[in-house]
Amino acid sequence: MDVETTGRGTWLGDRMIEIAIVEVRGGSIVDQYETLLNPGQRISGAITGLTGITTDMVMHAPYFDHVADEVAGRLTGRVFVAHNATFDWSFVSSELVAATGEAPDVPRLCTVRMCRRLVPQLRHRNLDVLARHFGVTIHPRHRAGGDALATARVLIRLLDEAAGLGIEDVATLTWYLGRHRQPKRFDPQQYALDLPGYERKVRRPWR
């Protein structure tokens, strides 16, 4: 998933101006969806300079309400993945709640966080760096379609890295990404969530 927006956050009244969803299944890209969106407000020169999207371009684009069911249908039953997923999810979920009354309750993964754990040798983790590291082309950059497609290709490579550690399901991957300290070698037989012997550590309160 990738979105382009009028600004930094929904709490500032910003809206989406473009959304793209790339479906990955079985290690392959199987479907793509993208559309410009009418935010109901003018697009600033700074955003146009970054994305190339102008107010005139979105004037006759659908409002999010018109595509909400399509977006919700493409997310339901899947894992939401984005680069800086918190940002994208904040816009998508708030728009879905406003349009339909709810947002799908789906697992979420962030490729920034995945990179931090799975490719720790990279000092920087922006999408350009990850794409260059994995030999992925981004075109066009800072457009939802180009960025979502690049993120999907990076995701596939990151999942290969996880599989090399024996991590092959979302629950184990989510737990692994959430650990603050990692052993030198990850042993999936020791730490898999569905195996006996796994238990979450509980911190005792100060006395």
Order of helices and strands: EEEHHHEHEHHHHH
CATH structural architecture: 2-Layer Sandwich
Largest sheet composition: 3 strands, antiparallel
Q: Indicate the radius of gyration in whole angstroms.
A: 19 Å
Relative strand content: 5-15%
Outline type: globular
| Topology-level CATH name | Nucleotidyltransferase, domain 5
Q: CATH class, anyone?
A: Alpha Beta
Strand order of the largest sheet: 1-2-3
Which residues sit in consecutive blocks of at least 5 with pLDDT less than 50? 190-207
> What would you give as the CATH superfamily?
Ribonuclease H-like superfamily/Ribonuclease H
Query: What is the count of structural domains?
Result: 1
Helix content: 40-55%
Strand element count = 5
Tell me the distance between the termini: 46 Å
Lay out the secondary structure.
Elements: E1 2-5, E2 16-25, E3 28-36, H1 45-51, H2 55-58, H3 64-75, E4 80-82, H4 85-100, E5 108-110, H5 111-118, H6 127-134, H7 144-164, H8 170-178, H9 188-191
Parallel strand pairs: 4-5
Antiparallel strand pairs: 1-2, 2-3
Helix pairs in contact: 3-4, 5-7, 6-7
Protein model, in words:
- With 207 residues, the chain is of the alpha+beta class.
- The protein has one domain (2-164): 2-Layer Sandwich (Nucleotidyltransferase, domain 5), CATH 3.30.420.
- The protein is 43% helix and 14% strand.
- The protein has nine helices and five strands, in the order βββαααβαβααααα.
- The strands form two sheets. Strands 1-2-3 form a three-stranded antiparallel sheet.
- α3 crosses α4, α5 runs parallel beside α7 (144-164) and α6 (127-134) packs across α7 (144-164).
- 29% of the residues are buried.
- Mean pLDDT is 89; it is low at 190-207.
